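Hi team,

Filling in the usual template for the complex we talked about on Friday. All components are listed, including any nucleic acid strands or ligand strings, so the model treats them as one assembly.

SUBMITTER: L.P.
PURPOSE: interface mapping
COMPONENTS: two
RESIDUES: 231
SEQUENCES:
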Amino acid sequence: MKLLYFAWVRQKIGRSDEEMKLPDGVATISELLLMLHARGGGYAEAFAEPWRLRAARNQEHVPFDAIIGGDDEIAFFPPVTGG
Amino acid sequence: MSVRIQRDDFDIGAECDALTGQNRNIGALVTFLGLVRGNDDLIALTLEHYPGMTEREISRHIAAANARWPLLGATVIHRIGRLVPGDRIVFVGVVSSHRKAAFEVGEFLMDYLKTRAPFWKREDRVSGTVWVEAKSSDEDAADRWNAR
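RESULT (copied from the run log):
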């Protein structure tokens, strides 16, 4: 799967994207978020406060209980501030 | 229907002409122009976006507007990159036969652009650099379209 990070999430992690194999036991956005948080360092910082984050699956907004698959593009970012 | 995400500035007159074209059924053209507001100690804004999703999200809302109002055309332009106070940042132009639909669609598109289109603003201030926080008042503005 492809992971994308934007705004301060990208800054804290120190990269804008990465490829990853969907780990066993990870079926939802929440579970992915917890797994990434457990990596520590910038990931721990970026995912420390999940309520400050939003997610997209294949370029559509989704809630954290959304199911994810191995070929998905998943993005994590703060609430949007365009316009 | 046109959606453009670009670094360059745009010409409002040219955009209006392109929207109306030769369509004699158009009786109303409503535009919204957003500018970078130079309050406090703002030096510049830097806008980042999610290429692909941004265009999809805005196009989806134009399609939703098209299903709800008698729309004859719409253009949304959003700039990215570094912008300074006074710069044009966003343009929404809507054409319809009558003004009511055009006004409503302009507001509808802006409300959703603010809350759903994946853009993020970083502010360079004299006091330092900060990411702009989303406002709940913007969420409320978008939510009212669901209640109707």
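MY TAKE: The interface with chain B takes residues 4, 6-8, 56, 59-61, 75, 77-83 of chain A (CB under 8 Å). Chain A has a mean pLDDT of 97.

Thanks, L.
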